[in-house]
Each structure stands twice: as C-alpha cells, then as structure tokens.
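Pasting as-is:
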Amino acid sequence: MAPDDRSGHWLWRLDAPGWLSAARSELAAGRALAEQRRVAVTHARRAAGMAVNAVLVALAVEPVDELRWGRSYLDHLRALGGADEARRHPLSATVQAAAARLLTIAVAPSAALVQLTRGPHGAADLALDLATTIVDECATLVATRAR
C-alpha cells in the first residue's frame, strides 16, 4: 500500500504510541472488570492485538506486510502463537508463548470442570498478565525502533 493510501486503512488509524495507549486502556478496563471473566479475557486479547498493531506501524519504515499477523486481534494471536522464529520476527518466543497461552483461556468457565486457579478471577488475571507481557514487549520494541 502506498503511503498516500493509509488514511482510511485500519492499521493507520493510530500511530504506534496511539496503539500502545489503546492497548493499555484495554488492559485497565480488563483489570477493572476482572470479575466478569468473558469481558476481562476479551479486553486482554484486544490489548495484545492492539500492541501488535503498534509493532506493525513501527515496522512501516521497512517494507512490511501489514497482514503478516492477520488483521484482527484474534488473527494476531493465532498467527503469533503458532509462528516459527522467522514469522514472528521481531517479536520473541516469550510473545509467541504468551499469545498461544492467551488463546487457550476460555472466555467462559466450563461447568463440567473444577477450576483450580489463583483465585476467584484466576483465568481473567492470567489472561491480563499474558496480555501485559505482550504489550510490554511490543512497547519496548516500538521504543527501540523510534530511536
């Protein structure tokens, strides 16, 4: 896509700091609603995806395929969770593992299983912690690229 065509494109709605700010807002909203598992896990996944958007924008100074990790936040997590080193570059194996694990957390608890967790909101807290790992690494990468 030519730089002049970016104004209406989904990725270019925000710059990298804007995507990171949106990701952090999603994390805060998820933490505030941790007692609502479905909502908190969704906020966590959205936060992670928004942070990945920040990386895509930061990489835009190089030839970049804006769809390399998909378009939606779930596409991003699926692509990164199953990516080999070359496909996830410049993100680390830590992000890959966090993305893969974040996808395994069900948005609703199973009635058939007894959940052994860190507390009453363990699944939501874990999802938010995993998303924070992704957001933090993406923020570090964006800051490094801005230098």
